[in-house]
Write a structure and sequence with these properties.
- Helices cover 27% and strands 25% of the residues.
- With 278 residues, the protein is of the alpha+beta class.
- The protein is globular.
- The protein starts with a helix and ends in a 17-residue tail after the last strand.
- It has helices at residues 3-18, 65-76, 106-110, 122-132, 181-202, 224-231; strands at 20-21, 39-50, 112-115, 118-121, 140-142, 158-166, 169-180, 206-220, 240-243, 258-261.
């Protein structure tokens, strides 16, 4: 059975059984009808996924595989902050009339910085170090630029990546300040697992572990019945990730270069369409 399913089940049970409600507090998120979107929340969650053994896709519900890859390419490859370069509507609520989400996500990755070897943006610096300085303990990206926060449509949730190479394997750690667990957990896990696979392939490395560190892990009040229904499902075997091995340049990847083989998640149930708080 999928290790991602087992981790998701354990995490959801922990939040529901040990989390603290934020009812009575002044909160920002609201539902479409204007009601406050309260949560049950815990702080400080750490999960580990061995990418060399399986791809961490939930089978309890279907992962929107191509869409999550499209977003990670939008941020890390296109380094875009404009929703017109994205093929989903997930960022529409945070964009201005021109489609910009401000100085967030891809904008930060695309800023160039000076190093002894020359100027690099954050993505190209990672690619350079993985090839030339794999023993480095400084292969880090950070999107939480305090100077620009006031010009962002939304403060970055998934904000820092740390990369580590050991025995020819690429390990990666994502730090995330906050996560809507039902809506975004497996979406983010799959995205950054894919990113790790891409960086490993173009750097001549194998994949190792993906570590996910979450600050505020929460389940929204209107999501609780859906989460409980998912927890009653039986986990199924993890799918196999297939990547176009001919791609050696990170900037050449497209969504068509990735396929999940033998992915058999539980069928979609329209009764449990997930509302999104904004």
């Amino acid at each position: 059975m999928s290790q991602a399913d087992l981790i998701f089940i354990e995490n959801c049970k922990h939040i529901l059984e040990n989390g603290v409600s934020d009812e009575g507090q002044n909160i920002r998120p609201k539902w479409d009808d204007g009601a406050p979107a309260h949560t049950i929340r815990t702080f400080g969650m750490v999960n580990r996924y061995d990418l060399s053994k399986e791809f961490p896709a939930l089978t309890l519900r279907r992962l929107a595989f191509k869409s999550c890859i499209d977003e990670i390419l939008w941020i890390w490859q296109k380094k875009s902050n404009n929703i017109n370069a994205l093929n989903t509507s997930i960022w529409d609520a945070w964009a201005d009339e021109n489609g910009s989400i401000g100085k967030a996500y891809g904008y930060q990755l695309g800023l160039k910085h000076k190093y002894p070897e020359g100027e690099f943006d954050q993505v190209d610096r990672v690619l350079y170090d993985l090839r030339h300085n794999p023993a480095s303990r400084r292969i880090i990206t950070n999107l939480y630029n305090h100077e620009d926060l006031h010009e962002m449509g939304l403060y970055p949730c998934a904000y820092m990546m740390t990369f580590n190479v050991a025995k020819g394997r690429l390990n990666a750690m994502l730090n995330q300040r906050s996560q809507d667990f039902l809506t975004a957990n497996n979406w983010n896990v799959a995205q950054y697992a894919i990113l790790t696979h891409m960086f490993a392939q173009v750097s001549g490395l194998e994949v190792g572990e993906f570590i996910h560190v979450i600050g505020d892990a929460h389940i929204y009040d209107r999501h609780i019945p859906i989460v409980k229904a998912l927890l009653e499902r039986e986990p199924r075997p993890a799918p196999k990730l297939l990547i176009n091995t001919n791609i050696k340049d990170f900037y050449k990847f497209t969504t068509d270069d990735f396929t999940l083989e033998d992915y058999k998640p539980h069928p979609f149930n329209r009764q449990y369409t997930i509302p999104v708080a904004i």
